[in-house]
Amino acid sequence: MQKNFVNIADFSGEQLAALLHRAIEEKTLHRAGKLPASLDRKALAMIFEKPSLRTRVSFETAMTHLGGHALYLTKADIGLGSREDVRDIARVLGGMCDGVMARTFSHQFVEDLARWAPVPVINALTDYSHPCQAMADLMTVREHFGDLAGRTVAFIGDGNNVARSLSLACAKLGMRFRLACPSGYELPEAFTNDLPAESFSMLRDPAEAVDGADVVYTDTWVSMGQEAEKAKRLKDFEGFQVNAELMAKAPAHAIVLHCLPAYRGYEISEETFEAHAKSIFAEAENRLHFQRALLNQLMADGGIA
What we know:
The chain is built from 13 helices and 9 strands. By secondary structure, it is an alpha/beta fold. It has 2 domains: 8-130 and 287-300, Rossmann fold, CATH 3.40.50.1370; 133-284, Rossmann fold (3-Layer(aba) Sandwich). The strands form 2 sheets. Strands 7-6-5-8-9 form a 5-stranded parallel β-sheet. It has a 4-stranded parallel β-sheet with strand order 2-1-3-4, sandwiched between helices. Helix 2 packs across helix 13 (277-300). It is globular, with a radius of gyration of 19 Å.
């Protein structure tokens, strides 16, 4: 039984598929007003080193839907790793709250929280991975197409935390993941060498990546904490914009996803963003629905079997 949700690598394809199934079922129950308040009087501590619109609103709203309460804690509030040792923070929060969610720069902080907290810990983003985003993405794909196995995701952009989690989730769920990026922005070989050869490919040409793809995915070229690299990154990513010209090379049924925030005119054109706004904002909303099901699984049911 897994009490935490920190890395996609910790779970089997069957476990991930079951979480997606639960999220879709509970989304239907919620919309019908029939989802039980299973976390009544439960509290979730939310640690934020990085601010976020979708992460904060989705987790707070999810806890409200389930009858619980969420506490917003910044690095200044708790002195994460500076004023107070992470081990001690984990045990203090674990004694007062029923779960901990963390959105941090350091992945090790979240690993340490999970090691020391006696309650479930959820990785809401680190510089290394973004598992909740990847699961909301695939929930959106499954809802749109009705299935996942055999589908192809073309990720046009940086081999970042989102690409890492999404490529691993795709491999576990029988999907293909293609990463198209400039030289120097690849996922590390130490990571990709462990992915099944049939599920992962590394390309330089975005047009080649979208050929036959069901999903064309992009993300900002300059993430939080990379502002000093902005000029170099914008130059390096010239030719990697998701736009009408690129989408003309993808199948007519392909959808575009973007984990947001989007910088129109850079990684995606205004025209293409608005043409695929329905799928992009369904993806954003599914952060709420997946994370609510995850909170239910970890805090009401005791973990992921």
